[in-house]
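Task 17 of the worksheet. Students: predict the tertiary structure of the chain below and write it out as structure tokens. Keep your answer in the requested format; marks are given for formatting as well as content.
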Amino acid sequence: MNKSVTIAAVLAISSLPIAAHAQGSGAVPGAVGGAAAGAVVGGPVGAVVGGVAGAALGGALSADESTKVKQYVVREHRPSVRVTEKVTVGEPLPPNVELYTVPADTGVRTDYRYTVVNDHTVLVDPRSRKIVQVIE
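Model answer:
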């Protein structure tokens, strides 16, 4: 690999925590996870691309918030919608899948919506309808 590409990759990766911190609590784990996944697929350059994408998508909720949302969804008994597409972060949901608001009394403040797809609770960006987090 070219030395300048390696240096650029290292510099970009080292700046991710700063850029990710500015985006919110879910961006840091998203950046780290994205960088790790990108490194496996594409080496140092893949780590940079994966880290930036991970910071943008991030883990939308912290582990504690995810637990609160999951408990709420279980209490609500929302039906699981079946779709043929794989339930994956970054993939859009079909327009016929109903999205629900995460109520403030859960203790979680988010503009994202949730739904249950193929027996998975997912957090969705209502503007793009893309899955931002799969809550297990």
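Marker's comment: The two ends are 39 Å apart (CA to CA). The chain has a mean pLDDT of 74.
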